[in-house]
Amino acid sequence: MKYPFSRILYGGDYNPNQWPREVWQEDMRLFQKAGINSATVNVFSWAKIQPGEETYDFSELDDIIAMLSRENFDIVLATSTGAMPAWLVKRYPEVGRVDYEGRRHKFGQRHNHCPNSPAYQKFARALASKLAERYGGNPHIACWHVNNEYGGECFCENCEKAFRVWLRKKYGTLDALNKAWNTEFWGHTFYDWDEIVAPNALSEGIGREKTAFAGISLDYRRFMSDSLLENYKLERDAIREFDRETPITTNLMGTYKGLDYFKWAKEMDVVSWDNYPAYNTPWSLTAMRHDLMRGLKSAPFMLMEQTPSQQNWQAYNSLKKPGQMRAQSLQTIAHGADTIQFFQLRRSVGACEKFHGAVISHSGSEDTRVFKEVSRLGAELQKLPELIGAGNPAEVGVFFDWDNYWALEYTSGPTVDLKYEGQIHQYYRYFYDHHTPVDMVPVDGDFSKYKVICAPMLYMVKEGVAEALEKFVAEGGTLVTGFMSGLVDESDNVHLGGYPGPLRKLCGIWVEEIDALAPGQENTLQFPDGTRAKCGLLCDRIRLEGAGALAHYGEDFYAGSPAATKHNFGKGMVYYIGTQPDKEGLARLLGGAAAQAGVKPLLDEETALEVARRVKGGKEYWFVLNLTGKAQPLPRCFAGDMDLLTSRDGSAEMEPFDGMVFCK
Ligand code: GLA
Ligand code: ZN
Q1: CA dist., res. 655 & res. 264, Å (int)
Q2: For residue 389, is it within any domain?
Q3: Does ligand 1 come within 6 angstroms of the Cβ of 347?
Q4: With a 6 A CB cut-off, is 343 part of the ligand 1 pocket?
Q5: Dihedral angle over CA of 580, 585, 590, 596, nearest 10
Q6: Minimal-distance CA residue to ligand 1 atom 3
Q7: Which of 364, 384, 404 is the last residue of a domain?
Q8: What is the predicted pLDDT for the residue at 652?
Q9: Which residues of the chain have pLDDT under 50?
């Protein structure tokens, strides 16, 4: 596979099929003016290019692709299978989903095919194949975009049958399955594979979020993720028969819960994703999601979508303030993106996205704030031609794992407030605030390149993970973990013999009990020097077995007992944080662990600016962003350097949303 791109792709979703031809000409003029060099086309055109079961009509798409090729665009060509045509659903009702409540859906909306429908598979594959045969040789096709934002779930009979096949393959025998799911509880023992039904609201589901049997519900999530992945692979392989070279992707959604993206990424040539932060999403959380998308393949990624101005589907769709889109785009590139693509290039006339932001507004005018900001960034990105493919070296790895995400949030007790992404983000944010690059890593990744691995809420410890962590620490690594860790195996059955199960030896502690604190209740962390921090959510009652206490609880019947610990293991160190400290308390614990492990922040000066670095061929690209809402001085280390984007001197003050890139 050739490296995906030779220039930063700048453009996005483009739907000329929704417009008369005169508008196309105007689009070309405006795109050129804005520095747009790429367009994602054919995302939702299945009904147009296949008006009936036996008939295809590529005439309009031929013209669109010819026009974009003439203009030397890098075309991102979608396969259109994310929205089914009405005729398909009418003739083959099985392609529609059965939802969590058990209702069979009719024609309507999008992103809602049944992944195990033979009819869907047949027609989706055929369409991808026709497209690849027709356009696969066009050198302007820079990337294939399969389907669109795969997700959701189906509980129909075809899925149920396929689930049983998937289970047979995984477990071999019903005995093994009954054991894994602990079906002796409530007498749910299965004697025939056909007795197993999809775990929705009519079966094991408790509300939308919980389940009576995590064993079956977890397997169903894995199965759904695999089923949709099979759909992706079907189209990918069809494309590959005609086009051996062009990278193939599908657009992911950051920390979207439904799909195990680490598994998906193995099948994708390049990761792409859609970034839609809300008006109040912390910048650190967006940064973490970018790092996760980079981490999926340990490689640069594509930003397939973001809005140039506002959204329509959030509760409050505020405008991006002047400079905010630029700052957000620079942050995206800083964390590893090689493309900046918008949804969408021209704002649509009707249906639910008519108020979704676009490069060209309903006025059609280029004299708009948004168009000018897009044009400015278009010109600036051309000043970073060598950045393509640059890496983001990091000394700290933070775990992210979809099995843990699912299992942790399914679990009933000890508190309803366990949210996986939020917990991971608390750890991530410390490093973000302290200008320390982080890789988001899978639990079965290669840890050897990191000084510190953070494993917050490593609730599920799958086979091999404890051993890999022991090896990492024994050889000198530092592990930081904490409450709700080491509790269950991959089927959500408890690791017996005392918490944190397989991590007990590593941590040098035994957690005897776990207290849950309601909102408003808190405890305190007391450090040996007399300082204190607040803590809450959960409090592990820790017994030391070789570890030393870093802090003790200040309140309740367990006042004076250890709340956070540190344990020498081989040549390395293991920290265990048994409660949720406030921001300062966590900073103190993580800061201590990182410093002792020799982790070096990018800067040794204090600054409220975001600083990130990409590295390629001996050159370092330093991104400095003011996301604070107030003017900020630049750190002294940039004095004398010149901003590649604006040629300003590195001693200037930065206004809110300003961003600079220095090459060192
Ligand atoms: C998603 C979809 C797009 C569009 C945008 C709107 O990311 O992929 O087709 O609907 O949302 O924000
Ligand atoms: Zn189904």
Answers
A1: 40
A2: no
A3: no
A4: yes
A5: -140
A6: 343
A7: 384
A8: 80
A9: none
What is the helix (H) or strand (E) element at residue 147, kind and residue range? none
Residues with CB under 5 A from ligand 2 (ion): 114, 116, 154, 156, 158-159
pLDDT at 2: 55
The pairing of strands 452-455 and 478-482 is parallel
* Nearest CA residue ID for atom 5, ligand 1: 343
Q: Are residues 272 and 213 in the same domain?
A: no
Is any ligand 1 atom within 6 A of the Cβ of residue 147?
A: no
Ligand closest to 150 (CA) is 1
Quote the pLDDT of residue 378: 98
CA dist., res. 207 & res. 169, Å (int): 29
Ligand 1 neighbour 311 (Cβ under 6 A): yes
How far does residue 232's CA lie from ligand 1's centre (Å)? 18
Residue 106 lies in a domain: no
pLDDT at 1: 53
Identify which ligand lies nearest to the alpha carbon of 114: 2
- Structure tokens that stand for 653 in this block: 């003050």
Q: Three-state SS string across 445-509, please?
A: CCCCCCCEEEECCCCECCCCHHHHHHHHHHCCCEEEEECCCCCECCCCCECCCCECHHHHHHHCE
Residues in the chain: 664
Task: Estimate the share of the chain in helix, then strand, then coil, as percent rounded to the nearest 5.
Answer: 35, 20, 45
**What is the rounded CA–CA span in Å between residue 179 and residue 427?**
35
> Is 121 in the same domain as 55?
yes
Q: 10 Å Cβ neighbour count for 315?
A: 6
**The one-letter amino acid at 237:** D
Q: Whole-angstrom Cα distance, residue 308 to residue 324?
A: 9
Within 10 angstroms of residue 566's Cβ, the number of other Cβ atoms is 21
Q: Is the CB of 309 under 6 A from ligand 1?
A: no
Same domain, 163 and 230: no
Rounded Cα distance, 82 and 80, in Å: 6
**Domain-located, residue 391:** no
Q: From the CA of 115, how far away is ligand 2's center (Å)?
A: 6
Among 220, 211, 97, which residue's Cα sits nearest to residue 163?
Answer: 220
In a domain, 602, yes or no: no
Say which CATH number the domain at 326 has.
Answer: 3.20.20.80
- Cα gap 171→161, rounded to integer Å: 15
Residue 443 backbone zone (phi > 0: left; psi -120 to 50: alpha; other: beta): alpha
- Do residue 403 and residue 520 come from a single domain? yes
Pocket test for ligand 1, best of 15, 305, 347 (most atoms within 8 A of CB): 305
Longest CA span, the chain: 78
| pTM of the complete model beyond 0.85 | yes
Joined tokens for residue 74: 């890098």
* Structural domain of 476: 396-597
